[in-house]
Specification:
Length: 344
């Protein structure tokens, strides 16, 4: 059994039994859209009798349309995590620099970490400066943008300028949370159009379908695209994964409505947290907030005692910063959370 600090968001198995409001996983709590439930009910059992012919093509076409990308430039896969592991097999890991703090699997598979200077507060500017230095000194640079867990977003234009100035280095951007940003079509690095950029995307978080495993790698680098595609399994996506994800991706009205509600909820969550904690990362364009604290386990217990699960990070671990990450609850849950925190 994993310990609390080893468990990823949504894994409650290390906690005592009990009803919890799970704000530890970064999935949109308004999801999945009704179209997914309808698609699930309508699945014909005969379509899961045979192998899932055409499933990855259907998903790729739907996701490319949603992203505003060329489907020929997408390599489908089982979530972003799969691509991180594949890239760790293909690239010389000692030559890949990760701008930390970052996502669990990225810092696990790539050991060269570039953290903020000790005692400094991480900002957009400090992250951009490290990306620039890393691109000048390393053949490959990895970062999540918006950042997991801080939520800081580095503008596409700034990253594009850095990548263009360092054409011999490859910038790999995990954009798991870019779709929570209203103008994600324009703000994604996919729009940069550079051959030394790799973008990892997944609809799982925005649409609340993390139980399906779908994602895509985008790049104009033919060599990387070919090598990654060669590592695909015979049946990349199941029929069920493809049907449900495709149904979600076409429900654009739901996306716009729930994204707006969730970002409003996140702003309200920020205010509630600021009443209790000094280290809230403010004004980030995502649906979660990071709270910097010295004792993350104590902060985790603070919320757990009130029936709320958050994600705790140990600042002494490689690639981490001490604190807790809290996902925005729904509007109804937000009222409950406010009452719970103020009643203790």
């Amino acid at each position: 059994m994993q310990t609390l600090l080893e468990s990823q968001g949504g894994d409650l198995r290390s906690l005592p039994a009990g009803p919890y409001l799970d704000l530890g996983t970064c999935v949109n709590r308004y999801g999945p859209p009704p179209s997914v439930a309808t698609a699930l009910r309508d699945i014909d059992p005969k379509h899961i009798l045979a192998h899932p012919y055409g499933s990855e093509e259907a998903f790729t076409e739907a996701y490319a349309a949603f992203m505003g990308a060329d489907p020929e430039r997408l390599v489908p896969g089982r979530g972003i995590t799969e691509f991180i592991r594949v890239l760790a097999q293909l690239l010389p890991t000692d030559r890949v620099a990760v701008i930390t703090p970052d996502y669990t699997d990225t810092i696990r598979w790539f050991p060269t970490h570039l953290p903020p200077p000790p005692g400094t507060t991480e900002t957009v500017r400090t992250r951009l400066e490290r990306v620039g230095r890393a691109l000048r000194t390393h053949p490959y640079v990895f970062l999540s943008n918006p950042n997991n867990p801080l939520g800081l977003y580095l503008h596409r234009d700034d990253l594009t300028a850095l990548a263009r100035a360092n054409p011999r280095s490859v910038l790999i951007v995990d954009e798991a949370y870019i779709e929570f940003v209203p103008d994600h079509h324009e703000l994604s690095m996919v729009r940069g159009g550079l051959p030394n950029v790799v973008v990892l995307r997944s609809p799982n978080k925005l649409f609340g379908i993390a139980g399906t495993r779908t994602g895509a790698l985008w790049t104009l680098n033919d060599d990387i695209a070919r090598r990654v595609a060669e590592r695909k399994l015979n049946w990349t996506l199941s029929h069920i994964d493809s049907v449900l994800a495709t149904a979600a991706l076409t429900d654009l009205a739901w996306v716009d409505r729930t994204r707006s509600a969730l970002l409003r909820d996140a702003t309200e969550l920020e205010g509630i947290l600021a009443e209790r904690f000094d280290g809230v990362v403010r004004g980030v364009p995502v649906h979660y907030r990071f709270v910097a604290v010295d004792d993350s386990l104590a902060a985790h217990r603070f919320f757990l005692d009130r029936g709320v699960v958050v994600r705790a990070f140990d600042g002494t671990s490689p690639g981490r910063v001490s604190g807790v990450r809290i996902t925005a609850p729904t509007n109804v849950e937000l009222t409950e959370l406010r009452g719970s925190l103020r009643s203790h």
